[in-house]
Amino acid sequence: MKTLAVIANCGKPRAAQVLQRLAARARAAGWALAADAPTAALLPDAAALPTPELFERADAVLALGGDGTMLRAVRELDGRDKPVLGVNIGGLGFLTSIGEEELDGAIEAMSRGRMAFRTHAIAECRVERAGAEPAVYRALNDVVITRGASPRMITLELAVNGDAVTSYACDGLIVATPAGSTGHSLSAGGPILAPETDAFVITLICPHTLSSRPLIVPDRSEIAVTVASLGGPQTLSVDGQVGQALRDGDRVLVRRSDRSVRFMHLPGHSYFAVLRRKLHWSGSNVQARQSRS
User: Fold this and answer.
1) In this model, does residue 186 exceed pLDDT 90?
2) Catalytic residue among 36, 45, 59, 67
3) Catalytic site includes residue 171
């Protein structure tokens, strides 16, 4: 019997109902269930395990909630090669693969080995500070430097592979992976990168010059951002979930990690269909306009 590790956002209104349905369907399909303690309290027949043991024992991981739950699951996997299926019971949900109405079919497809897989790059972020050990983080979505609650702009110096690009007076800077290009970077005016793109996108938050534009660089590059002037307490945020305060002179280094993560999808899954649905792309409707003329 294979083991399915389940992590849920138990604060979602429908979480308990969906978890009960999952338990019945998984039991019928021959899956043993294990979960973190909050999820196990709502998931019948699931073994409650601490997170490291949960992922060591699992053959696959199910993240039930929204994109935040997916980001948490990937972070806690910590590079373990266990495929992840995201079930959306939240809001926008770019990272989640299926809606709750597709859960039964997904469990059946998993049991029969009929799921499709897509590998996503992970960014590794190191914070270097004089006299301190580097802090290391991994990001599925993005690494963000912001001015926090301070009303003053910050100055950041950017270099790629040791080659100085420029310095920016801005409210912040985002380094996003392809998976994260539909997140904070998109809302700041950055482009959408298809999942297979071997690149990072560097997007400024409210740059104080009209000439600043998003920059796409190969993900084999090392991106170095030096905090030249803060003007108040500033923050490094990794996937919007972990991070630290920054000081003048800190260097934030971002490169592609040697680890990655695999997402599971139902056969026939289309990334561009997701974009059309989530971003409400309806097309130009040329025929309708011609008929009115």
Assistant:
1) yes
2) 67
3) no
